[in-house]
Amino acid sequence: MSTMLIKEIKGQIKLITGLHIGAGNDEVHIGGIDSAVVKDAYGNPYIPGSSLKGKIRSLLELSEGSTTGNPSDRVNYPHSLIPIVFGDMSKNSQEFTRVLFRDAFLSKESIDMLSSDSILPTEEKSENSIDRIKGVANYPRKIERVIAGMVFDFSIALRILDTDNEGQFKDLLKKGFEMLEADALGGSGSRGYGKVKFENLTYDGDDF
Question: Which pTM was predicted?
Answer without folding.
Answer: 0.85
